[in-house]
Each structure stands twice: as structure tokens, then as C-alpha cells.
Amino acid sequence: MVSRVIPVDLFDLVIFGGTGDLARRKILPGLFRRFCAGQMPDQARVIGAARSEMDSDGYREMVREAIGEFGGGHTFEPAQLEAFLGQLEYVAIDALGEQGWKELQALMAGTERVEAYYFSVAPSLFGEIAERLQKWGMADDQARIVVEKPFGRDLETARALNKTLATYFNEDQIYRIDHYLGKETVQNLMAVRFGNMLFEPLWNSQYVDHIQITVAETVGVGGRGEYYDKSGAMRDMVQNHLMQLLCLIAMEPPARFSPDAVRDEKLKVIRALEPVLPYHVVRGQYQAEPCNEAKNPGFRTAVGNPRSRTESFIALRTEISNWRWAGTPFYLRTGKRMQARSSEITVVFKDTPHSIFAEDAGRHRNVLSIRLQPNEGITLGVTIKEPGPGGMRLIDVPLDMSYAEAINPDDVEHVDAYERLIMDVIRGNQTLFMRGDEVEAAWAWTDPIIKGWEARNDVPKPYDHGSTGPTDSTELLRREGREWRQVTQ
Ligand code: NAP
């Protein structure tokens, strides 16, 4: 494999919540993969920080197990794991008290290196940790903080959180993570859009009929029932992940691929989003799997709230009020317990203005699909003549731009979204992180939709386990003469 690893500066990464689910499943296995790829300098340190009492050796054992469980089949030499574990430390610390802060300060003192603090804890602790980092002299100009979603639950709380963090850190020190932006295909989308002459002239309401963004999951709320019942698909998925994908698809070409140039353009898209009309939104709640209720209960049972009005599915239609997109519908859809796990952005182009072929020759629209998972890749459907005798019959064939076809898979180094984004933090590159004003603008658009449901006591429509959501969601497009793309694995 050709190594394209770009070394990063020497760093210390403190993971608050270093014993938690996210740290064990994503952050630590991801760091280990970067270590194996040769990207983690020998003297770099990863410091786990949480309340649980243990020493660094105990933490290393916990991380060893986490890598075994969540390493995702990554093969490595035993010596590599030992060397990585040797770069780990642990501090028992209380974000809400004074315990452990002196020890952490001593560990971080006097080192000339990048200092990153990953807040992999409940959002209610973000402000507390930021304040204590400053109190203990760690919030200096070199420090970077990484904050996880959810970033607020509405505009007011997001503003308050931005304000709190801004008390201790400058905007260029704050990395608000949305792991969708770290996905390979999302970056490839930008390469395809802005690296080719082919697409940009067609990328507007004159040639594009509509755009669909689907993020479908087969899992239910799992162990996150209590959190999810207070959140719902709108807050958990649309306000952040789907909105970010929408921005990348719809934004104007930035002057350069630099953090503020990209984020300025994304912000303009969010600010140009039309308010969503009530009949342009469909909310759903999944039902239990028939004959398997104990294993796959319905949403209300799963969240432990028989009266829950929280949505596990949402489909909506919006438009962007600017010269490029005026009149082009954007359909967004996300849900749990759906037919297949699939994340895809689809750009459906308009019909040719006039067909020179006989009516029965068939007619197909060009469709560009950008698939985030599974089978990441980009496909463009083009119309060609069906080969063989029998006159002119038109068929639709995919021009596949996925890596599996174009590039020898052995030459491609798989990099998970989290590993890429953590390395970007160390490099000091904020391009793939949300800026504070973007997050607030996204909430400003989302809030009235949620408030409207609350005012109307809106009850989500039930939908079958393993389906494509409530039938009203199909209607949302059908009444405009369109169809959702099939959700396929
Ligand atoms: P989690 O499993 O509940 O872990 C929470 C961590 O915080 C634990 O390490 C816990 O350790 C520590 N902690 C709790 N109270 C503390 C305190 N007072 N002082 C210091 N440490 C404290 O949560 P998680 O699933 O990892 O999620 C962490 C964050 O990531 C949350 O904001 C979540 O919304 C976000 N997130 C998670 C996922 C995911 O897949 N898990 C995905 C996206 C975003 P002790 O109990 O030992 O203190």
C-alpha cells in the first residue's frame, strides 16, 4: 500500500470521558489505527480523564479491551499495540469538582506541543470543563477543544453554550465535531463538485429537478432511550448531519478550500433555507417488530414513555431562496428501524428538453448518487442505447466513480471519520468542523418547526418496523410527481 500519511506535530490529547462509550468505540480505536499508520509521533500522549478510579495501567487494560472489541478487524502486530498503550496515561478527574485537576495540570505543564482537549462527556459538562481548564491554566492560546454533539437543544441553549465556550476559548480553538463531515465520500463530493468542469454549470435549478438526502438506520434507539425521547430525529439528525450534507451539496464554490471560506458558504445556505410548511413535514414513530416485540419493541416501549410524541422518523421538503436554487425542492429523510442502513444524497437532473426518440424508446433522467454508507462511492446514471438489434431503445447505466471500481482497494487506506477529524484537530484545520454561527443558524431554522409541533400537539404517524417510514412520507413526493429513491443496503 502506498502510504500517504502526513505527519502531525507532537501532541497531547486529553479525552474527558475517556472511559465512555464514544471513547472506547471510536476515539481510541481510531487513534490506534493512526498510530499503526505511523501518524502518531513517538512522544505524543493520549490522556484519558474521567471520574472512575484507576491508574494508567488500569486504563491501558481498558483500552486494550476496547481495541479488541471495537477495532473493526484492523490487523496489527502485538508490539504495535504495546507501544500505543505505552503512550497512554489516565487521570481520575471530576469535571464538577476539584479532584484530579492538579494532577492534570502537572501532566500538561511545560510541554511545547499541541494541546487538545476532547469533551467526550455529556454536554452539561462542557462549560464546567472549559471553566476549570482556564482556572488551572490550561486554556492557553495553544489549547484546542473538541466538542461533541448535541450542541444545544435549540437556538437559545446553543447560543448560551457558544457564549460560555467563548468566555474561555477563541472560535479558532473550538472544534465542533460532526462526524458526517469526516466521511471519505463527503470529501469526495467536494472533489467531484469543485474539481471538475462537468458538474458545476449544471448545478442549479435550471438543470436539477430536485435533491434527496436520506440517512436510514436499521437500529432502534437502543440504550439511548431516555436521551432520544427528549431529542428526536429532528434534533438528533436533521439539525446537524443532514443539514451539513445539504450545505455541502448546495453551497457556492468557496474561493479556496480553507476553513472560513468553506464555512462562510455553508452558513449562507442555512440562512437561505425557506421555513418549512407544516404539510411539508412527516413525522413517524416505529412500531414493534411483529412476533418479536421483546427483542425489537416499538419506539414508545424502547424509550420507556407510553405517551411519547417524539419522532424516530422525519421527512421534509424545503427550498433554498437564492439564485442558484430557487424553486428546486430539497427532500430530507431520516429514520430508525428502517428497511436498510443507507445514507445517500441524490441529485436528480431534469428531463432533456425534447426527446428525438420514439415514445416507446424509454426516457431516463440523469441521477447522481453520492453514497455515504454502505459501499461508499459516487455513481452517475447516464442514458445509452440498449446494445444489440431491435432499433433504438434507451437504458440507464451507472458510471461508477466508487473506489472499488476505479482504484485498487489495496492501495486505499481506510480512514474512519473520527480518525480523520482528530488528526485535523492536531493539524489545526477547522474546515470540516462547524463554526458557532453555523450551528446557531441551523437551530434558528429548526426551532420554529419543532415549536409548531409542540403548539399543535402533533402526534407522529406510526410506521412498520423495517419499512421506509409512514406512507405520508411517500405522499410528500408523490403529490409532486416524484418518488423517493429506494432504500437499499
Ligand atoms: P458515556 O458512555 O455515558 O460516557 C460518559 C463519560 O463521561 C464517561 O467516561 C464518564 O466516566 C465521564 N464522566 C461523567 N461524568 C463525569 C464527570 N463529572 N467528570 C468527569 N468525567 C465524567 O457517553 P458517550 O456515549 O461516550 O458520549 C459522550 C459524548 O459524546 C456525549 O456528549 C454524547 O452525546 C456524544 N456522542 C456520543 C456518541 C456515541 O456513539 N456514543 C455519538 C455521538 C455523540 P465516569 O463515569 O468514570 O466519570
Provide the fold topology.
Elements: E1 11-16, H1 21-36, E2 45-50, H2 56-70, H3 78-85, E3 88-92, H4 101-108, E4 114-119, H5 126-135, E5 143-147, H6 155-168, E6 174-176, H7 184-195, E7 208-216, H8 225-250, H9 259-271, E8 281-286, H10 299-302, E9 313-318, E10 330-335, E11 342-349, E12 367-373, E13 377-385, E14 394-400, H11 403-406, H12 417-427, H13 436-456, E15 461-463, H14 471-478
Parallel strand pairs: 1-2, 1-4, 2-3, 4-5, 5-6, 7-10, 8-15
Antiparallel strand pairs: 7-11, 8-9, 9-10, 11-12, 12-13, 13-14
Helix pairs in contact: 1-2, 1-12, 5-6, 6-13, 8-9, 8-13, 9-13
Task: Walk me through what this model shows.
The chain has about 500 residues and is α/β, with parallel strands linked by helices. It folds into two domains: about 10-150, Rossmann fold (3-Layer(aba) Sandwich), CATH 3.40.50; about 180-415 and about 430-480, Dihydrodipicolinate Reductase, domain 2, CATH 3.30.360. The protein is about 35% helix and about 20% strand. It is built from 14 helices and 15 strands. The protein has helices spanning about 20-35, 55-70, 80-85, 100-110, 125-135, 155-170, 185-195, 225-250, 260-270, 300, 405, 415-425, 435-455, 470-480; strands at about 10-15, 45-50, 90, 115-120, 145, 175, 210-215, 280-285, 315-320, 330-335, 340-350, 365-375, 375-385, 395-400, 460-465. Strands 14-13-12-11-7-10-9-8-15 form a nine-stranded mixed β-sheet, sandwiched between helices. Strands 3-2-1-4-5-6 form a six-stranded parallel β-sheet. Strand 5, helix 6 and strand 6 (about 175) form a beta-alpha-beta unit. The two termini are about 30 Å apart. The mean pLDDT is about 95. NADP nicotinamide-adenine-dinucleotide phosphate (NAP) binds next to helix 1.
